[in-house]
Design a protein that fits this description.
It is built from 30 helices and 28 strands. The protein is of the alpha/beta class. It holds the Pfam family Phosphorylase.
Length: about 850
């Protein structure tokens, strides 16, 4: 019989055990070993059965056991110590509080998904895990962050396999009362809500749930409330589900409703109002519109409000391909804004102009969320050095007239939260070397001096650790594989072979990620005979553990999963290669430490960062990857191997896969397996262990989320907060009026004449040329512009590379035709083909970048030819 209604009955904890409730509700337990150990000791069997979730654990422990623990003095002492430790963690000054200067009072961080722990399944892949790691690292560093997301009642789907290996999706219903969440309440005890206006007089209401991630509050909006109609109740049903309007409503709720939730939280708790708003990918871009509307209500005009909002906004793009960006039909967006819908005080045409692809190569009828994110943020970044360059090229159309290198998108390379991803055994080995506190600091904050101590750990200890982790992975794989085959319909009598799957003494390769086509899940199957030879080699075998989910709507991705599963089902190799369904955080935390090699073979440059290899590296796993994302930036032969790429323009996809697969096989056969199985005089794989040691000591400090968040604070949050404070209402009006005046006058700006003191096309290194330029400024004055000389080496097409920019100074006043003369020196500081040009840019003290306006005037083609601007 099925229940007609479901309730969550909470346990009544004895008074001495009340701190357990606070510990369970703060998700710091997910990365704090002592807290997890305490909960495990409450009832080891219930702990395992609850999926290692303290909230579920406390709901299942028998009252008799709780009464027994309340009388146990040793347990109460442990409980007091862990509770005191959390209190100190929450209140003591940390890295952020020790920084000089006036940092942001608070930062609001918006993301469509957050991967904090498997006990709060609100993530699908790398974007969510990155957002979760960002919150956790901010907490460890003391950064006053407020996270904002949506609470999906079905989360992302759970994955299983049919008998023939086809991916099947399941959507379990999540009850917020059974999750580590608490409802945000008004002062009268009623649940706090936000509301959005919809067309036709409808309304979308959402409750605010609070997850406490260490020191960081995470606000999650939930539309499944009784006040909503059926359609509105389902807005937050699934992560990345539904059609265009469903996604648009999710993103309006995240952005607009999210700002309102932050205001509500600050009002109710006294938390500092954010000075900086960080948009993690374009899904939350509407937050800028809500903040503009707030300022318009306070008396600012739209243009001034836009400048004020841009000053304090940071936008991070994670996608290297246009197909990865949410785009909506113009009319759909128009219907949800303006009179009779949301933000009626803002002209809908102004809303649309922020997101329309009104640039060469764009689709003029599409509203692009990333484009809006960039137009609403004064600071933007990609998530690796390579991805920053890809992003500048991808969005260069927003800054016409500028080379892609000058597009104002920087990069902050992602990192991973080491306390979450480092196996307890790895941590204990480090703590034994340098002490628990220094080891915790090394993982949370970084500092190479703490990581250098890895050099002092004996080879034998490292090798024993690696085998222990491999052994644990083997046990985990067999358990998960047995469960998977039962789901596929196999009986116990069919599964005896699973007892011999994998070997703790065999070189183990891991490959786990989402399954879009560009990540090439099945590249390893390109030459199956060669792969079989590797798996079954008599002296140097390898074994491979694979996991990954295809998006429910991606039939091609599901076919890739099925193709791989069918290969792993082959009785000849199934003891050496396995596919584990339902990849998630709980599986990942066992998988990364247990592998010797982490494989990544995307199509370059389509991997924005690829943080899974970072998590593996923190556990002493070596990377084998295409030079893409973070690996392109930090690869050294000390840390692993680079798979050569065949990414020339003329290489067709099939040939490219063949070339790169052969390179992968060659590396495994000729370099990797011999090194793993080679033994030195000590009987250990000395050269392999040296690579493990260097990975930990040299790569470890770089891949930390602590390093990443420190960079965000220093390079983006602090400047954004400073710009936010400088953009008071008068300054915002001044900048908006100046931009409007400059845009109107810009057609009258031109470079009329360029003259140098050089009489020949050759010159010696170190020589100085006198440069004299005549420009027309139309209705502008020299205070409105900067005239620059741009010089550097030139390529065969006469493009200036690695350009140096020098401002020129006006000489005297305008002539009778209104032209101004600018002069300055040009130093020939490089040998070889050298070139220069000049340009005029708008200039204002409140601009974050000289290219921010997207306006530039350069010499005409005729003038370039007449001036002879190249020197060879």
């Amino acid at each position: 019989m099925k229940a007609i209604r479901r309730l969550t009955v909470r346990p009544v904890l004895p008074d001495p055990l009340r701190p357990l409730s606070d510990l369970a509700r703060n998700l710091r337990w997910s990365w704090h070993p002592e807290t997890r150990d305490l909960f495990q000791s409450v009832d080891p069997e219930c702990w395992t059965a609850s999926g290692r979730d303290p909230v579920r654990l406390l709901g299942t422990v028998p009252p008799a056991r709780l009464a027994e623990l309340a009388e146990d003095r040793r347990f109460r002492r442990r409980l007091t110590a862990v509770a005191d430790d959390l209190d100190h963690y929450m209140t003591d000054d940390r890295w952020y509080q020790a920084q000089p200067g006036r940092l942001p009072a608070a930062v609001a961080y918006f993301s469509p998904e957050f991967g904090i722990t498997a006990a709060l399944p609100q993530y699908s892949g790398g974007l969510g895990i990155l957002a979760g790691d960002h919150l956790k690292a901010a907490s460890d560093l003391g950064v006053p962050l407020v996270g904002v997301g949506l609470l999906y009642r079905h989360g992302y789907f759970r994955q299983s396999l049919s008998r023939d290996g086809w991916q099947q999706e399941h959507y379990p219903v999540l009850d917020p009362h059974e999750l580590p969440l608490a409802p945000l309440k008004e002062s009268d005890g009623t649940p706090a809500h936000v509301a959005l206006a919809l067309p036709d007089g409808r309304e979308l209401r959402a409750r605010i749930w609070l997850a406490q991630v260490g020191r960081v509050p995470l606000l999650l909006l939930d539309s499944d409330v009784e006040e909503n109609e059926g359609g509105e109740r389902g807005v937050t049903d699934r992560l990345y589900g539904g059609g265009s309007e469903h996604r648009l409503l999710q993103e309006m709720l995240l952005g607009i409703g999210g700002v309102r939730a932050v205001r509500t939280y600050c009002r109710l708790t006294g938390h500092a109002e954010p000075e900086v708003f960080h948009t993690n990918e374009g899904h939350a871009g509407f937050l800028g519109l809500e903040r503009i509307a707030e300022l318009c209500d306070q008396g600012l005009e739209f243009g001034a409000a836009l400048e004020a909002v841009r000053a304090g906004t940071v936008f991070t793009t994670h996608t290297p391909v246009p197909a990865g960006i949410d785009r909506f039909d113009r009319e759909l967006v128009a219907r949800h804004f303006g009179p009779g819908a949301e933000l009626p005080r803002i002209d809908v045409e102004r809303v649309l102009r922020l997101g329309m692809e009104t640039y060469p190569g764009g689709e003029p009828n599409l509203f692009n969320m990333a484009v809006m994110g960039l137009r609403l943020a004064q600071r933007a970044n990609g998530v690796s050095l390579l991805h920053g360059g890809v992003s500048r090229g991808m969005f260069a159309g927003l800054w016409p007239g500028f080379d892609a290198e000058e597009v104002p998108i920087t990069s902050v390379t992602n990192g991973v939260h080491a306390p979450t991803w480092v196996a307890p055994e790895v941590f204990r080995l480090g703590a034994r070397q340098i002490g628990v506190q220094r080891a915790e600091d090394a993982l949370a904050v970084g500092g190479s001096d703490r990581w250098d101590s890895v050099a002092d750990i004996p080879d034998q200890d490292i090798w024993e650790l690696r085998r222990t982790l491999r052994e644990q992975l083997v046990e985990e794989v067999r358990e998960r594989l047995r469960a998977s085959w039962r789901q596929r319909g196999a009986g116990t009598a069919e599964l005896g072979w699973i007892d011999d799957v994998l070997d703790p003494d065999v070189l183990t390769i891991g490959f786990a990620r989402r399954v879009p086509s560009y990540k090439r899940l099945t590249l390893m199957l390109r030459d199956r005979d060669r792969l079989m030879d590797l798996l079954l080699h008599s002296e140097r075998p390898v074994q491979i553990v694979v996991a990954g989910k295809a998006h429910p709507a991606d039939e091609g991705g599901k076919r890739l999963v099925q193709e791989l599963v069918r290969f792993t089902d082959d009785p000849r190799v199934r003891h050496r290669i396995v596919f584990l369904p339902d990849y998630g955080m709980a599986m990942a935390q066992k998988l990364y430490p247990g592998c010797d090699i982490w494989l990544n073979n995307p199509l370059r440059p389509l991997e924005a960062c690829g943080t899974s290899g970072m998590k593996a590296a923190l556990n002493g796993c070596l990377n084998l990857s295409v030079l893409d994302g973070w690996w392109d930036e930090w690869y050294q032969p000390d840390f692993g191997w680079a798979i050569p790429t065949a990414d020339g323009v003329g290489t067709d996809p099939d040939r490219r896969d063949a070339i790169e697969a052969n390179a992968l096989y060659d590396l495994l056969e000729q370099r990797i397996t011999p090194r793993f199985y080679e033994r030195g005089a000590s009987g250990l794989p000395d050269r392999w262990l040296e690579m493990v040691r260097r990975t930990l000591s040299l790569l470890g400090p770089k891949v930390l989320a602590g390093r990443m968040v420190r960079e965000y604070v220093e390079r983006l949050y602090a400047p954004a907060a400073e710009a936010h404070r400088a953009m008071d209402p008068d300054s915002a009006r001044e900048l908006a009026e100046w931009k409007a005046r400059v845009r109107a006058a810009w057609p009258g700006v031109s470079v009329d004449h360029v003259q140098t003191a050089a009489a020949t096309a050759g010159a010696e290194l170190g020589a100085t040329l006198g440069l004299r330029v005549r420009v027309r400024l139309g209705d502008l004055s020299p205070e409105d512009v900067e005239v620059q000389a741009v010089s550097g080496r030139v390529d065969p097409e006469d493009r200036i590379t690695d350009a140096a920019k020098v401002p020129l100074k006006p000489v005297g006043g305008p002539d009778l035709e209104g032209r101004w003369v600018y002069e300055g020196p040009l130093v020939l500081d490089r040998t070889g083909p050298f070139g220069y040009t000049v340009r005029v840019l708008p200039a204002h003290r409140l601009l974050a970048s000289a290219v921010e306006t997207g306006l530039v005037a350069v010499p005409s083609g005729e003038l370039v030819e007449a001036a002879g601007l190249l020197m060879r």
